[in-house]
Structure prediction request, 450 residues.
Amino acid sequence: MAQEIVNSGRILGPDGLPIRREQLTREIATPSLTGVRQIWTSSIASGLTPEDLVSILQRAVENDAHDFLTLAEEMEERETHYGAVLGVRKQAVTGLDIIVESASDKTADVKLADEIRALIADPAFDDMTEDLMDALGKSYSAVEIMWDRSERQWRPRAYEHRDPRWFRFDRETGSELRLLDEVDFFNGIPLPAYKFITHRPRIKTGLPIRSGLARMAAFAWICKAYALKDWMAFAEVFGLPITLGKYGPGATAEDVAVLRAAVANIGSDARAVLPESMKIEFEKTAAAAGGDTLFEKLCEYLDRQMSKAVLGQTSTTDAQAAGLGSNQASVHNQVRGDIIRADARRLANTLNRDLVKPYIDLNHGPQEHYPTIRIHIPEPEDLQQLTAALKDLVPMGLRVETSVIRDKLGLPDPAKDAEVLTAPAAAVAPAVNHHQGCPHCGTARNAASD
Prediction:
């Protein structure tokens, strides 16, 4: 019955309309040199002012996010700290193991799960998940599936990440992602069902375009850009002596011009010729109170704000005096663990919706239950507490498989003839040296003499 549904074209997309199979094997979001989907764009970050930034963020909310998306990309390239912490958050999820769970233990359901496992084993799948996590900074990411049917089976032959600037949200709700096209440049065209994987991390409630981390970090980024510029200008002259030219009360305008030229050139020439009535002095400057560390402290503060925005904490990126092994760091790491679980859950939901279901529907028809992708997050174990509990509970009769404990400790099963650690042998009690004063010995001798 499922195969009949596949052949009859009765597979319905999320919009309730039949899937158009001829679109699945055709590349749709192609770039062009002169059209609406160009890969070349001008810089936004160069010379950006706070007023410009406010305008860019406001236009993004009004459904013109081209400049915001360009700025979000440049922020990753120009700001080392923001790019680093954003990369940490992306890789915290893409580096986890992906597990496929079958809908049931039935043979048919297990077979479907095995087919999804084969999709995940494709090296292109890992690259695709990394492309989807680009949504963290920009609020969404779209990957076009290049379906192949050369072996009479629908399979993705490639996943093409598409520039987020080629898309826009619908004007009515601001939540439906549409593709820019010459057919309708103003509103865009709907994305064909089963053709795109679109990931939206939902970092905050509200319009999707407002939930990108780049929007949250933008003001810290521009403040740091100004601070670095001023810091470099300050570093050029900090600690250098001030060159003072002094002339007498009777100096003419021509004499002042000669002195000014001498002061200007003495830094490079280290020599000058002056009238006897003029002199040049070098005044040493003392660092103003805290002035020599002002810019450094400001940049460190802004880095911490970016870390909070992206990771939800600061300890793992900027180790403070408390140390990474402190209780404070453990609390921060727990918060970051919550973020990883949320990101992993949302990415898994996207893959189940836009990859697993389309693949199963195209090859086997709609199912009542589908295999499920789950991203496994290993939970840290308190090994010392576990060891103490086993030490008390096993002698009381608790039965525990050794393989389970080895897995928790991260130890492999020993080889058959391997030398293994064993518990130390119990100490043997020393022999009692009986003597004449021992009542037991005396009783024994008396009994023997009787």
